[in-house]
Amino acid sequence: MKLKTLFISTLLGLGTLTVNAAEFTLTDSLSGTDVGDWKVTNQTLGFTDSGTFSVEKRQLHGGKQAGVDILIVNNGKVSITLIPTRGMGIFDVKMDGERLLGWDSPVKEIVNPAFIELESRNGLGWLDGFNEMMVRCGYEWTGHPGVDDNGQLLSLHGRVQNTPASTVKVIIDDKPPHKITIQGEVSERTFKMAELVTLTQLEVVPGSTTFSLHDQLTNKADYDNEYQIIYHSNFGTPILEKGAKFIAAASEISPFNDYAKAGLKDWQTYLGPTKGYDEMVFNFKPIGNDNGETLAVLHNAKANKGVAVGYNVQQLPVLTLWKNTDTKQQGYVTGIEPGTSYAYNTKYQRPLGLVPTIKAGETKHFDLTYTILANNNDVKSALKQVATIQNGAEVKQVTTPIVDLNTVE
User: What is the C-alpha separation between 140 and 397, in angstroms, rounded?
Assistant: First the structure.
């Protein structure tokens, strides 16, 4: 165990907080470090002033998941499985042994990026590994595949999720409540092009049903660059079912394309598994409180299970809702997707001001929280928070997509 003093800057830049913590480096590509299978617990750290918790690193074997590292963070209440080999994405979240956050994809293995060809199927190769609860889409670009204005072929949703983390660290606060932090650095570096480095950070406190992400995207190049990010957060059963409901604080909703127009009036509710149901996507303009904080909630038909996704509209100004209530075998799932951008190809979003620039040496911050809603009271509390932000305003329904995909080239 390496005990050291860490200086953690507050989000608002109001100063620093000094804490003692145990820090473990599990992976470091530059030094060639990899600890292999590994585990730490509250007992091995000698912590007797908290509940049980553990962090475990495993490597998967067989098929297309061969060589994939996973981290299982168990805080005594929930178990979160991260995938350092796949851009530090989150595979699923379980509580009391039951998966509550995640979904059943036709992709059954946690696929090693070595087996992914992003440019295959006209840029849809990303789908060959898509089965996680939370996928980062970006950072050089995101959205649908196609040719950009400069003639470059962009694959679906960028490269970060299929980029293994270069460094992985576990940091556990020495004093109660012994917050657990998992850091991973993911780099998108291409000669003469981008040099974007993201320090991802997952934080969870033992016994809590809430966990948070705090990502820092830094442009390491000497030139300004464009960037995009969507936090593709995906949920299936047991939360998603016939009669499940989605609620978000927003000023406006519009259909992604003509097909989604038919579902606009029922955007808040879900069908059960439905054969022949093509995906419907909706674009939101979310609203936040005085600090920009906002919330989106998905709950089941009885409103006794759900999830709340919190984020800041100053960092992530748009929200995409992906409804894919196809059959269970094909992937019965919905996506709550805060981002800098919608899911259109980059060239259609640039005129909308949704392809931001990160200056040379600049760092952008993205902060999200995920909260499991385990009972009716949890759901009611989350819905009340959304209603407070909405403050009685209606969500305006705009029937025309913001991009006319029938006329664009």
Answer: 31
Q: How many CA atoms lie within 13 A of 348 on its CB side?
A: 22
Is the pTM for the entire model greater than 0.85? yes
316's tokens: 């992530």
* CA neighbor of 372 nearest in space, from 210, 248, 134: 210
SS3 of residue 203 by DSSP = strand
Give the C-alpha separation, 224 to 194, whole Å.
Answer: 9
Residue 214 corresponds to which tokens in the numbers above? 């705090």
Q: pLDDT per residue over 284-339, tens digit each? A: 999 999 999 999 999 999 999 999 999 999 999 999 999 999 999 999 999 999 99
- Would you call 212 exposed, middle or buried from its count of C-beta atoms within 10 A (0-12, 13-18, 19+)? middle
C-alpha closest to that of 82 among 43, 55, 104: 55
Q: Counting beta carbons within 10 angstroms of the beta carbon of residue 318, is it exposed (0 to 12), middle (13 to 18) or buried (19 or more)?
A: buried
Between the alpha carbon of residue 153 and those of residues 92, 122, 124, 148, 359, the distances in Å are 31, 9, 11, 6, 24
